[in-house]
Amino acid sequence: SLRPHGLEGMGVLLYAAKSTGLGVQSPLCSFGQILLCGPHPCDLLSPRRVDVLVMTPWFAPIIWDGTFDSAILDAQFRDTTIGLTVFAIKKYVVFLRLFLETAEKYFMVGHKVTYYVFTDRPADVPQIALRAGRQVVVLHVGSYRRWQDISMHRMEMISNFSRQRFLHEVDYLVCLDVDMKFSDHVGVEILAPLFGTLHPGFYAADRQSFTYERRPLSRAYIPRDEGDFYYAGGFFGGSVPEVYRLTTACHQAMTADQAQGIEAVWHDESHLNRYLLSHKPSKVLSPEYLWDERMLQRPPLLRKLRYVAVPKNHGEIRNR
């Protein structure tokens, strides 16, 4: 789910453009845009989006509606197997049915998918109809008293299972929160060696507003004069080896923090942001891929909402 912080900062994503000199009104396609534009030569010099930033300062594409061609990418990733990890611990299992049903409608349609469901309540995992080449694998794990501990141990569990089985079973991992639903196409356009998603509460903000961990004692610490974007903890992924490296590093950092008696301000999300600052993602997903309609007013630049939060009572769900 979205962390309920910083959701008031809205607008066009201009911060990186202003701070690096990358404008959003260039009349020519960047190389990344050419790769993602339509198949006809006449399209190559006609960028489909000039209202948003489509490239990071390190030349990683930022994925918005209109910046990719699904047919080309589906062919490119035709033989790819995708693993989706989701945690349904304690009462969060109630979100699984809607999550899986909407995933079958919108997530990686036409591709081989394994849903890895981490849960302490395997008997409560719903049975749903699956498309050909897709399966649900239930991974029985323990629970923790505090929801913060569940959130932080997610990195440890993804790391362990990546080493034990994911490396041998799938090509890419997509790591998502369960208290959400798919509402539009989410396909292979997101796949890259390492990708993160812009947090919808900060995609228009400058780095001074980001809620990074600011205490130097924490391994998640980011100084106020550093930072690229603020990434959401509820949607990240990449190739299995890259996700293994990310989750292992975050788990080790959280273990070191625990030994120092400190807990990062936004738990695993804080450590994710620290990691992605030092290890730049090769692709960045726009807020189309993570949104909360109850807390945020949808701006015109968001043509699609692909993955959205569902209503919930945080206190009731987290404490049972």
From TrEMBL:
GO CC annotations, alphabetized: Golgi apparatus; membrane; vesicle
Topological type in the membrane: Single-pass type II membrane protein
Alphabetized GO MF terms: hexosyltransferase activity; metal ion binding
Residue positions binding UDP-N-acetyl-alpha-D-galactosamine: 87-89, 92, 177-179
CDD domains: Glyco_transf_6
Residues forming the catalytic site: 269
Record's subcellular location: Membrane
Cofactor note: Binds 1 Mn(2+) ion per subunit.
Residue sites binding Mn(2+) per the record: 177, 179
N-terminal signal peptide: none
Claim: ATP-binding is one of the keywords in the record: no
Residue numbers binding an alpha-L-fucosyl-(1->2)-beta-D-galactosyl derivative: 199, 211, 269, 292
Alphabetic keyword roster: Glycosyltransferase, Manganese, Membrane, Metal-binding, Signal-anchor, Transferase, Transmembrane, Transmembrane helix
Cofactor(s) essential for the protein: Mn(2+)
Entry's Gene Ontology BP terms: carbohydrate metabolic process
One Pfam family here: Glyco_transf_6
Family: Belongs to the glycosyltransferase 6 family.
Record PANTHER family: GLYCOSYLTRANSFERASE-RELATED, HISTO-BLOOD GROUP ABO SYSTEM TRANSFERASE 1
Protein name: ABO, alpha 1-3-N-acetylgalactosaminyltransferase and alpha 1-3-galactosyltransferase
Lineage: Eukaryota, Metazoa, Chordata, Craniata, Vertebrata
